[in-house]
Write a structure and sequence with these properties.
heterodimer; A: alpha+beta; Histone, subunit A; two-stranded antiparallel sheet; 3 helices; B: alpha+beta; 9-stranded mixed β-sheet; 15 helices; 17 strands; 39% helix; 19% strand; elongated
Chain lengths: 95, 483
């Protein structure tokens, strides 16, 4: 599978990444290479092999349902460029 | 029941599927230890995980998993022992991660069923496609500032169950019945409080129109409708809109629409068009969730009796009509209240009183079962007085009103007001003789074959006794003396 310039532009827009026109061609080539390599991996016969989801053999850790966190609104919003009345304040995003 | 709509060019049939977002009842969030309590100060129930600070890792809440499994079992659904959390990628101001952790290809619960109880007492089965766990987003407030939106992340990361139905519904009425039944089941299970006005249950409506018998048409999705009435309105309105477009020779565009409860209308959300490319992929921070079948079994045996089973039991053991049983089981507390009243008493009499006079009084006063001045024990006491003949059913209604106003026991009111039924046959005979002697004309009419006049005589006795005479005995004595 190969990636063209339009696909690069679309992926960049979805990810909110600004990509200069001059870089699109080379990025398309890079992404195509990566996809080609993945495709090569899929040539392997993996019939009956469980997918490896972690490099260490472990189960998903679970926690008990207890309130152990929160209660520090100032810390949470400390890095916000703008805030008001304890809220984050962002440019209006009304539908 | 009509399931088609007449357009200008013939019949149309609705095809409806619902996606319900139900907030899971839990103390803390899906992946963090911050509280889920409603109505706290902005951003006071936010952990650094919920605010998506770099390096934070999600840790799954075991109880929420249990709640999802419990719900799946309550919906008679397949429990998937392996499920996978994925990232659903999109940008919005109240989604700090830039993605929602959700389940996609492998949800925790698969196919199940819900039985709808329709108005006419009929039932209908609707399939459940799946149930998956996901994070809620934060809350945006748009009306506090002319150029800014305010963001509160208290809700960010709260656990939701998205419950997706099959496209099995054919009318707004069925969609309403589905939501009511689902809400009842969730409340019985204690997995979601079902309060649509607090946003803990919200529905997205998928709707398409087709000619009866034809394949499905293109659907639209109306988002975040927050009451059952609005869901029904949104369906009616969208169905009419689609018929208009189709009959004018147009095509339905697959799109997301937003319903406005104020105007009762929906409009297209154009900004969401590009958002449909969510680029799901398994969340690398979370391993697949594996459930121990023995654990699932322990949840299964701990399930409460569910509304359908309870209804069947009320019909079978108490001999109640299906409709009455349905009304009583619609709410778990109501069902428990009824069972307390019915215990050791005539179950049909109890059902009539609970559904009729008691619900009537609740509605009129705006009270609920907890705050009502008459509890199950007191209502039971009143029924005992009817059962042992102390008072008649008619007087009982009077006593009940008095109980509601004063909060007193039935026995005390009957005693204080001298409302005890007159069941002394010689006393009644005396009164009947007196009435017969004073009203020869009516006696003639009865003897001439006018059976209806008997009611008039009963009325006279009741008048003399202020309604306290035992009606069965009055009838009996009258027939004997007149005949």
């Amino acid at each position: 599978m190969s990636v063209d310039k339009e696909t690069v532009a679309n992926i960049a827009r979805l990810a909110r990444v600004r990509v200069d026109e001059s870089h699109k061609e080379s990025l398309a080539k890079e992404l195509s290479n990566i996809l080609g390599w993945i495709e090569q991996l899929s040539e392997l016969d993996t019939e009956g092999v469980e997918p490896m989801t972690s490099v260490v053999s472990m189960k998903l850790p679970l926690r008990e349902d207890e309130v152990t966190d929160g209660g520090y609104p100032d810390k949470v919003t400390a890095n916000a460029p703008e805030g008001a009345h304890g809220f984050y304040a962002v440019p209006k995003v009304v539908e | 029941m009509a399931t088609t709509i007449k357009g200008k060019t013939g019949e149309w049939e609705m095809v409806i599927g619902l996606e319900v977002h139900a907030q899971v009842i839990s103390k803390s969030k899906l992946f963090s230890g911050a509280s889920t309590a409603f109505g706290a100060e902005p951003n006071s129930q936010v952990s650094l995980v919920d605010a998506a600070m770099p390096g934070m890792l999600p840790v799954l809440n075991k109880y929420v998993v249990e709640q999802a499994v419990r719900t799946g079992l309550g919906l008679k659904a397949q429990i998937n022992l392996t499920s996978v959390f994925e990232r659903k990628n999109y940008f919005y101001a109240d989604l700090p991660q830039g993605y929602q952790i959700s389940q996609y290809l492998e949800p925790i619960v698969g196919e199940g069923t819900i039985i709808l109880d329709l108005e006419d007492g009929e039932t209908r089965e609707v399939g459940i496609e799946r149930l998956h766990l996901e994070q809620d987003a934060g809350k945006s407030i748009h009306d506090q500032h002319p150029t800014q939106s305010y963001i509160d992340l208290n809700r960010s990361g709260v656990a939701l169950m998205e419950i997706v139905s099959k496209p099995d519904m054919r009318s707004a009425e069925e969609a309403g019945a589905y939501l009511r039944k689902l809400r009842t089941i969730l409340r019985y299970l204690g997995t979601c409080d079902g309060n649509m006005d607090e946003g803990s249950m919200r529905a997205d409506v998928n709707l398409s129109m087709r000619r009866p018998g034809e394949p499905m048409g293109t659907r639209t999705e109306t988002k975040n409708v927050n009451s059952i009435r609005f869901v029904q309105q949104a369906i009616e309105q969208e169905a009419r809109r689609q018929i208009e477009v189709l009959e004018a020779g147009g095509e339905i565009v697959q799109e997301t629409r937003l319903f406005d409860g104020m105007t009762g209308k929906s409009r297209s959300m154009r900004s969401k068009e590009e958002a449909h490319d969510y680029r799901y992929f398994p969340d690398p921070d979370l391993l697949p969730l594996e459930l121990d079948p023995a654990w699932v079994e322990t949840i299964k045996v701990s399930l409460p009796e569910l509304p359908d089973e309870k209804k069947a039991r009320f019909v079978k053991d108490f001999g109640l009509p299906i409709y009455d049983a349905g009304v009583l089981v619609a709410d778990r507390d109501t069902a428990a209240f009824y069972e307390t009243v019915a215990e050791g008493r005539d179950p049909k009499l109890a059902a009539n009183w609970v559904i009729g006079d008691y619900f009537g009084a609740l509605n009129k006063s705006g009270a609920d079962l907890e705050s009502a001045p008459v509890d199950a024990k007191k209502l039971g006491g009143l029924l005992d007085l009817i059962a042992d003949g102390t008072i008649s059913g008619r007087i009982a209604k009077e006593v009940f009103e008095e109980m509601w106003d004063s909060g007193q026991d039935a026995g005390a009111i009957v005693e204080a007001k001298g409302l005890k039924q007159i069941s002394d046959s010689s006393e009644i005979e005396g009164m009947v003789e007196e009435i017969i002697a004073n009203n020869p004309k009516q006696v003639e009419q009865f003897k001439g074959g006018n059976e209806k006049i008997l009611g008039w005589f009963v009325g006279q006795v009741m008048k003399m006794t202020q309604g306290k005479a035992n009606p069965g005995m009055v009838n009996e004595v009258l027939r004997k003396k007149l005949g």
